[in-house]
Amino acid sequence: MRPTTTAHSMLRAHHFAGLAPGPRLIVLGAVHGNEVCGTRAIERVLAELEAGRWQLRRGALSLVPVANPLAYANGTRNGERNLNRRLLPTDAPREYEDQLANLLCPWLAAHDVLLDLHSFLGPGEPFVLRGPPDNDGTLEPFAHAVAEGRLAECLGPTRIVEGWMTVYAEGAARRRACGMKDDADASYGIGTTEYMRSQGGYAVTLECGQHEDPAAPQVAYHAIRRAVALLGLAEWPDFEPLPRGGAFERLRLATVVDREHANDRLVRPWASFDALRAGEPVAERADGTFWRAPRDGRVVFPDPSARPGHEWFYFAEPLG
Predict the structure, then answer these.
(1) Higher per-residue pLDDT: 244 or 127
(2) 75: closest CA among 125, 131, 33?
(3) Given this model, what pLDDT does residue 228 score?
(4) Cα(first)–Cα(last) distance of the chain, in Å?
(5) What is the pLDDT averaged over residues 161-177?
(6) CB neighbours of 185 closer than 8 A, spacing ≥ 6?
């Protein structure tokens, strides 16, 4: 492991506690260093708390403006690796993000609820990533799907996506069967929300918009307000009502497609959630064959710069 520079040798959190018992919420910004909308939103919330505009009445609120200081200082997605993959404590940290995980994981475990604020590369509308239904399986056992669903629905965006761990584990198994080593361990799919669920809490990731979208920090800010209100932590002045009902687009990630060869190419510059018709070509392999949508759905997280052996894009299908 390379030595950590002094400027990046600490992780800062701000903790507030009400005098009455209640849920414990933690909010993360800049898990990826070039995704700063959460950082700006958290800074705005901190300024309001410090000015006394509102106070916590019950429970606890922890705010982490910059979860990856090295990546944030460099303006890059990662420092030495992706912090939001294989987020697990380790007795033998090798990379900078391993050190961060050893701090972040106990913080997550000490809370009940996580709101992780992100943005994305291409154009598109904000959306929420949530976890699995309640289950007692071995991959991601879970018992708080109802509460997590309420959180996902209160944040503002109306597109909700699930199925991450299942589809990632299937992709990892396929890579192992092909003799690949990169991204071939199912634990590499564990990020902040997956770790939070493994510790008995619940969590959502809010993708607030494109990295440079000036509206993304506002999306993140209102999401923090709504999460605080939903959990009853504070009575926020001039707070807008929580959404009641409404129409949501619900999608399940069904397949992850890897780039196998440097000459594999997407047939056009897809944006996340572009609609697909059954049989429509999405990508052309180096051998001239096409990957086609198996049924109607949407393309998600297309990455034209993906390296061979790594995830390239996801296919999502409507739920219910």
Answers:
(1) 127
(2) 33
(3) 95
(4) 47
(5) 84
(6) 86, 172
Amino acid occupying residue 102: N
CA distance 14 to 152: 24
Q: Minimal CA–CA distance to 7: which of 107, 117, 96? A: 96
181, pLDDT greater than 80: no
For residue 249, give both structure tokens.
């687009």
Beta-carbon contacts of residue 299 (< 8 Å; ≥ 6 apart): 270, 272, 273, 274, 276, 282, 293, 313, 314, 315, 316
Nearest to 194, CA basis, from 286, 265, 101: 101
CA distance 122 to 272: 7
315 within 8 A of 167, measured Cβ to Cβ: no
pLDDT digit string, tens, across residues 241-250 = 556 556 899 9
DSSP assignment, residue 67? S
Domains annotated on the chain, with CATH: 6-230 (3.40.630.10), 254-318 (2.40.50.100)
pLDDT in tens, 190-228: 999 999 999 999 999 999 999 999 999 999 999 999 999
Residue with more model confidence, 171 or 147: 147
- H and E: helices and strands count for the chain: 7, 14
Token output for 228 = 């605080």
Q: How far apart are CA 184 and CA 172, in angstroms?
A: 4
Interstrand relation of 202-210 and 113-120 (parallel, antiparallel or unpaired): parallel
Q: Which residue has the tokens 């959502």?
A: 204
User: 16: closest CA among 54, 83, 53, 62?
Assistant: 62
Strand (E) or helix (H) holding 151: helix 145-154
Residue 172 has pLDDT above 90, yes or no: no
